[in-house]
């Protein structure tokens, strides 16, 4: 009787163990082949290396590769989904068994005009986020553009067709970068088609040029050190002033001085920057801007309020913008939501948080913006909407809030497009319309007209800003 009971117990135990065993063992290794959700990428990872491929419905092009040690700390796997964290962004990839067949085929001519056009068009078809917002009839635009391409088309023809498509799509982050030779030939062709008219020659300012002119006039006590991208100090009456020219170029990349002299700083910087992994790019930019902001906030901590001028700032990295903004934030808070085009819908929504700093500046802050404040500067303005001590003065931002999805054509040209939708915490989207201000100064929409209006009367510009501050303080 006892032996039967023992046998029954053993059988029951085996049934219990077998019944509790999962049907499929979960694979938590990052090694394998992964397809992105919403970004047109395949990522191949083995024990020592990683390689990204840009994919469309019919093309697969190598994009970036490196040692897995550079990126593995930003990766985690859950339920066969790879999650990669870069700054505040999380990118999700689904495990697939093998590379698509066309990733192993190299028979296509990478310089074929029609092939490059189709890769460009298919990327827009699959990833552009604003067909509805901008009332775009994609099928019509695609067919009309394709009909301009034939067996006799040149690279210049291809470039002009793509530029025309980007303009018609009204894509704030749409761009195409051909070779210098193609760009110059296209520029000459366009110029020859325009009837020259005698017009008054007006002074044209660069973004950095007008920024320097304004900062030099504003600052009565210049405290700037070890930075050419930011200027800071005091105006008068213990009012702090910070001017930020760009939201990138802050990483310490140990650039070769002779290359900088030969090719310019930005070109040399971007060549070195592109050799980093995506994760390294983010961390290096944040480290650079954090070091600058440590000096800025130490120098201005005793001011009665601070004016931050980003009116001439065309953007860069969102993480740079938020690293600046968090110096005025005392507690972790959600500031926005983002999603990306994926199949016929969107990826899951990702909340974006602004992290606090240990000793935040909580006195009044006034953010100066204009229609030229774009991209990552839009993001700074969007995040500022959740800070009670910050008010915006000037005119609404540009409204180019989506990240730029960077891609490469088979012929090596770089291009980008807007594939994401950012909203505030109430799901309101500010793409195209920009982030509004609390005090409107009605700046001109045209870039050069705006720059000249400032440069031609710097005293009036400064007086308008200080008057706006006084009005907002009295409310």
UniProtKB/TrEMBL annotation:
Q: Which InterPro entries match?
A: ClpP/crotonase-like_dom_sf, Tail-specific_protease, Tricorn_C1
SUPFAM superfamilies membership: ClpP/crotonase (SSF52096)
- CDD domains to which the protein is assigned, alphabetical: Peptidase_S41_IRBP
Q: Which PROSITE patterns match?
A: PROKAR_LIPOPROTEIN
Q: Where is the signal peptide?
A: none
Domain named Tail specific protease is located at 252-442
Q: What molecular functions are annotated in GO for this chain?
A: serine-type peptidase activity
Q: Name one GO biological process term.
A: proteolysis
Record's protein name: Peptidase family S41
Species of the source: Cellulophaga tyrosinoxydans
Q: What is the lineage of its organism?
A: Bacteria, Pseudomonadati, Bacteroidota, Flavobacteriia, Flavobacteriales
């Amino acid at each position: 009787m006892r032996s039967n009971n023992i046998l029954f117990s053993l059988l029951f135990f085996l049934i219990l163990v077998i019944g509790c065993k999962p049907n499929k063992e979960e694979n938590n290794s990052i090694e394998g082949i992964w397809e992105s959700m919403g970004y047109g990428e395949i990522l191949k990872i083995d024990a020592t290396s990683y390689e990204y491929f840009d994919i469309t419905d019919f093309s697969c092009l190598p994009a970036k590769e490196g040692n897995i040690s550079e990126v593995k700390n930003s990766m985690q796997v859950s339920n066969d989904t790879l999650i990669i964290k870069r700054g505040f962004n999380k990118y999700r990839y689904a495990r697939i068994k093998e590379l698509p067949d066309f990733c192993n085929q190299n028979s296509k001519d990478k310089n074929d005009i029609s092939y490059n056009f189709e890769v460009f068009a298919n990327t827009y078809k699959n990833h552009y986020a604003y067909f509805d917002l901008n009332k775009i009839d994609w099928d019509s635009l695609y067919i009309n553009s394709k009909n301009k391409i034939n067996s006799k088309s040149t690279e210049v023809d291809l470039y002009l067709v793509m530029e025309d498509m980007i303009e018609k799509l009204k894509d704030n982050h749409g761009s195409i970068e051909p070779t210098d030779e193609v760009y110059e030939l296209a520029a000459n062709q366009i110029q020859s088609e325009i009837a020259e008219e005698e017009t008054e020659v007006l002074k044209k300012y660069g973004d950095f040029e007008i920024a320097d002119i304004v900062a030099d006039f504003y600052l009565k006590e210049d405290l700037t050190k070890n930075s050419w991208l930011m200027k800071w100090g005091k105006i008068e009456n213990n009012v702090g002033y910070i001017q930020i020219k760009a939201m990138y170029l802050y990483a310490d990349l140990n650039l070769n001085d002779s290359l900088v002299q030969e090719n310019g700083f930005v070109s040399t910087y971007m060549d070195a920057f592109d050799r980093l992994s995506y994760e390294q790019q983010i961390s290096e930019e944040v480290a650079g801007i954090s070091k600058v902001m440590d000096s800025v906030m130490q120098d201005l901590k005793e001011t009665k309020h601070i004016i931050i001028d980003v009116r001439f700032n065309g953007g860069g990295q969102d993480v740079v913008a938020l690293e600046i903004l968090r110096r005025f934030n005392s507690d972790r808070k959600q500031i926005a939501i983002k999603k990306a085009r994926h199949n016929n819908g969107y990826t899951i929504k990702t909340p974006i948080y602004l992290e606090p700093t240990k000793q935040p500046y909580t006195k009044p802050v006034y953010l100066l913006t204009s229609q030229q404040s774009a991209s990552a500067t839009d993001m700074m303005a969007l995040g500022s909407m959740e800070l009670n001590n910050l008010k915006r003065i000037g005119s609404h931002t540009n409204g180019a809030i989506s990240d730029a999805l960077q891609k490469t054509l088979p012929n090596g040209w770089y291009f980008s497009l807007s594939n994401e939708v950012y909203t505030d915490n109430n799901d309101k989207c500010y793409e195209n319309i920009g982030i509004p201000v609390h005090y409107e100064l009605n700046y001109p929409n045209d870039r050069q007209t705006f720059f000249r209006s400032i440069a031609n009367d710097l005293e009036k510009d400064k007086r308008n800003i200080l008057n706006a501050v006084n009005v907002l303080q009295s409310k």
